[in-house]
Design a protein that fits this description.
CATH superfamily of the largest domain: Glycogen Phosphorylase B
CATH class of the largest domain: Alpha Beta
Helix content: 25-40%
Mean pLDDT: 93
Number of domains: 2
Strand order of the largest sheet: 3-2-1-5-7-8
Number of helices: 11
Low-confidence stretches: none
Strand content: 15-25%
Shape: globular
Largest sheet: 6 strands, parallel
Order of helices and strands: EHEEHEEHEEEHHEHEHEHEHEHEH
Structural class: alpha/beta
Radius of gyration: 21 Å
CATH architecture of the largest domain: 3-Layer(aba) Sandwich
């Protein structure tokens, strides 16, 4: 086996959690890996030891960062031509969505492993939604079909730091007047309202952190400006809360987290990037199940689930579970994490 095609387009956390399986496959076979990834997530895998080549899936034509629909079609057909221009020994779809199934079928590969009950695939892994196991293990199920033994112990996330990213973060911290080891990072936004904690609750936690002598960095994308603004407007000490929205790409978040004393957030991609580092983590979970997508490895960080939450995995929650998670519980967890550093 000389060359392998991996199809895992998104999201940020899912890509990070796919790295242990891809790393094991690469170690066991010595194959060169071509990875198809959403172009909005590409910074995660640039100059990455697990991606010898990146093929970029164009952003949704209706996404705010996309160009014209015609440009989307041109880039989509260009990707198909790239997939058809070579033959892979193995192609694996680790996502199991209709669009990734189409990419898998378009690829020229001697062997194909799909995910989900799609037609015309001789090897596929079922979506076992009723079976509670971590996303890390779900990725390894595809490798099981190859007859590969699973690695001994807990497989590790693979996301190495880069010196250029470290230098950029160090310069940014100097510009803000923030010292390494003396700031906490809050990730106030998630992709689903059902996973997002109320901004006024985050404000109470941020004020408490500042009261402990720490600065607070509110980290997210440019789409999170309104939410971060609501957090700061509800604070009493907002002058030491710095919004970093869209200032760093996903890979550059790694050294930012490494220099923090604490990271707090919901089930969102940057939280899983933080799990790669040694920084203490406080993770808030609502609609998503921490047994499936909690920080890896198990026991990494302090995970707090919303009271009586059923982890419905729905984008919108009628029961408003996250509102029942009181700020005092999060402050208590943060206090324990910071106390362990003393």
């Amino acid at each position: 086996m000389k060359n392998v095609l991996i199809i895992k387009l998104s999201s940020v956390g899912d890509i990070v959690m796919a790295t242990p399986a891809v790393s094991h496959l690469k170690q066991e076979t010595g194959a060169s890996v071509t990875w198809v990834v959403d172009e909005g997530m590409a910074s995660l895998l640039e100059d990455h030891p697990l991606a010898d080549e990146l093929l970029l899936y164009p952003r949704d034509p209706f996404h705010e960062s996309s160009r014209t629909f015609g440009s989307f079609v041109t880039r989509w057909t260009g990707l198909l031509r790239q997939l058809r221009s070579r033959t892979y020994d193995l192609a694996i779809d680790l996502q199991g969505r209709p669009r990734t199934y189409l990419l898998l079928q378009a690829a020229r590969a001697r062997r194909k492993i799909g995910r989900g009950m799609f037609p015309f695939l001789s090897h596929t892994v079922r979506h076992r939604r009723s079976f509670r196991r971590h996303a890390i293990g779900a990725c390894f199920e595809s490798l099981d079909l190859l007859g590969l033994d699973r690695p001994a112990g807990e497989p590790r996330l693979v996301l190495p730091a880069r010196r250029n990213d470290e230098m950029k973060v160090e310069a940014l911290l100097r510009e803000l007047g923030v010292s390494a080891g003396r700031y906490a990072v809050i990730l106030p936004a998630t992709t689903w309202p059902s996973k997002t904690w109320p901004p006024e609750y985050w404000a109470q936690v941020a004020d408490w952190l500042i009261g402990q002598g720490l600065d607070v960095l509110l980290v997210g994308s440019t789409r999170d400006q309104e939410l971060a603004g609501r957090v700061r407007s509800a604070m009493t000490q907002a002058d030491r809360a710095f919004p970093l929205l869209g200032a760093l790409n996903f890979r550059e978040l790694l050294p930012l987290f490494e220099r923090a004393c604490l990271v707090l957030g919901g089930d969102t991609g940057p939280l899983h990037i933080a799990a790669v580092t040694r920084v203490p983590i406080v993770a808030l979970y609502g609609a998503s199940d921490p047994l499936r997508t909690g920080p890896w490895p198990p026991g990494r960080g302090m995970v707090i689930a919303a009271p009586d939450c059923r982890h419905c995995r729905l984008p919108y929650c009628r029961r408003k579970c996250m509102t029942r998670l009181e700020p005092g519980r999060v402050i208590e967890a943060a206090s324990v994490c910071l106390g362990a550093l003393v």
